[in-house]
Amino acid sequence: MDPDDIPHSKLTGPLRRGSVKKNVAAIHVSGKLTLLQRKLSNVLLLNAYDALISKPKHQIDAQTLCMMVGYNSNDMETLKQSLRSLAETVAEWDMLDENGKQEWGVSSLLSYAKLQGGVCEYAYSPALAEKLHDPKVFALINLNIQRRFTSGHALALYENCYRFVRTGSTGWWDIALFRRLMGVEGSAYYESFKHLNAKIIKPAVAEVNKTSNILLTPEFKKMGRQVAEVRFLIKENPQLAMLDIDDGAGVRQGAVYGQLMALGVSDRLARQWIAEHGEDYVAEKVGYLKGRKGVDSPVRYLSAALRDDYKDAPAEAVKEVPPEVLAAAEARKAAEAEAARRAAAEDAAKAQERALRAQRLERIRDLAASRSPTQRDADKRLFLSRLEDEIDREEFRNRGWGAALLASQMAEFWEELIPGAFEELAG
C-alpha cells in the first residue's frame, strides 16, 4: 500500500523520482482502515517525508490535519481513534536487501502519536521509515487524486497498485493476501471468490480507473476450479496524468515560489500548490494574505484561501495582483457558473429518475397485490431464485417488493411476467 500527503484536499502530486531499474519491492499494509484513516496515514507520511530519515519524530498542527483529511477540525476524539488505529495497524515487507539477501520485516504504521497543545506529534520506526523513504520501495500518493476516492477498498487497491506503475503489473498475489490487503480477511462471505469479485474487485477497479491517474485490468489464475491468484495490469491514465507534478526545478525559479518560501511554506507544499492551482491563482491568494492583518498562521490561512477561493480582498491586496491574474479569476468564475449550471441540470435529471423509480416501485407493489395468494407466493419464489447474490436475496426477504435497491431487477421480472406493465409510466 502507499501513503501520501500533506495539506488538504486541494494538494496534488505523486512525487516522481528517476526511473528505477530494480524490481519494485513489496510493502503491504493491513487493509482494515476506514477511508478517512487511510487518507490520514497518507497525509502524515507526506508531511514527514522530507525529514523521514533525518528526524526521529514529526509534528503537524492538529486542526490543520483534521481539515486536510476531512474531519471536523474540532473532532479530536475521531482523530484520536484514527491515530490509535494507525498505531495498531501492521506494515509488513518481504524483499531482497542491497546485497541480494532476503529481508522480512514487520512494524506498526506509527510507532507512537500524541496530541498536545493543538499539535499532533508522531513517529515511525527506523526500519519502516527507511523503507517508506526509498523510492525504489515505496511510492507517495497524489493528494489531489486521493481526495476523489469515496471507497476505502478502491483507495486501498490504488495504493497497492500505484507503486508498480513503472513495471506495468503488480505480479501475482495469492487470493488470501489480496483479501488481507483489502481488509476483508476473516469474512466468511468474501471467502467466496464470486462475492469478492462482485463486491470488492469490480467496484474498486471501476473507481480507480474513473478517478485516478492509472488504469487497472485484473487477471486471475486458477488452481483446479478455484481462483488462487490475482494480479493487476497497470498503465497510466492519459486523461488524469496532468495531476502529476515534476521535480519542481522550473517552479523553484519563479517569483511566486519565492513568496511562498518567505511565508514559511515547505518546498513540497509550495510546488504542489503551484502545480494544481497555477502561479496566477496562488499569486492572487498570496496578495490577499498580505492584505490581512494579524494572521497567526500564514500557511494554514493561505491553504484555506486556496481551497475556498477567498474573495473580496482588501484594496491594498488587490493592487498587488497583476491584471492578468484578475482576468484569470474572472475566467474561473465563468467556469464555475457553467459547472453550477451543469450540476443543476444533473440534479434535475436525477430528480426525474428518482420520480420514475418511485413510480415503478409503486407499480410493482400494485402488480404484486393484484395477484392471487397462490400466485404471490410463486412470484416471490421465482424472483428469489433469479437472484445470485446472497446480499440481494436477503434484501428481498426483508423488504419484499418494496426493496428499492432491487428496483431494476424487479421491473425486468414483472415486464417479463406481464409485458407492457410499465408502458404508461412517464419517461
UniProtKB/TrEMBL annotation:
Keywords tagged on the record: Coiled coil, Plasmid
InterPro entries: Initiator_Rep_WH1, WH-like_DNA-bd_sf, WH_DNA-bd_sf
Domain Initiator Rep protein WH1: 20-161
Regions annotated as coiled coil: 326-362
Highest taxon in the source lineage: Bacteria
Pfam families: Rep3_C (PF21205), Rep3_N (PF01051)
Family recorded in the similarity comment: Belongs to the initiator RepB protein family.
Protein name as annotated: Replication initiation protein
Species annotation: Leisingera aquaemixtae
